[in-house]
Amino acid sequence: MCHVLEMRTTLTIEDQIDVRLRTVADRQNRSYKDVVNEALAGGLPEIEVAEPLPEYHVRVRDFGFQPGVDTARLNQLYDELETDR
């Protein structure tokens, strides 16, 4: 007899994924836990062999704004200019 060790954990699952998992569980008359475990087991091989992304470096550049210019509000200024157009 094979005994499977289970671990209880808490996950935050995106709403769209949760709906899909619950739909599968309802349609197939299966437990939510079984559907989640099957989905995770099925996806693991794909991410286990995934190569890490190369490092990405951002070059910092001084834009030379005058003192008093709130650069955090540039998007707001752009939106106002677009609205005026």
Tags for this model:
single chain; mainly alpha; 3 helices; 85 residues
Structure description:
- With 85 residues, this protein is mainly alpha-helical.
- The chain has a domain at 15-45.
- Helix content is 48%, strand content 0%.
- The chain has three helices and no strands.
- It has helices at residues 15-27, 32-48, 74-84.
- α1 (15-27) crosses α2 (32-48).
- The longest helix has 17 residues, at 32-48.
- It is elongated.
- The termini are far apart.
- The model has no long low-confidence stretch (mean pLDDT 86).
What is the number of beta strands? 0
| Distance from first to last alpha carbon | 74 Å
Helix content: 40-55%
Content-based structural category: mainly alpha
Outline:
The protein has helices at residues 15-27, 32-48, 74-84.
Task: Give a topology summary.
Elements: H1 15-27, H2 32-48, H3 74-84
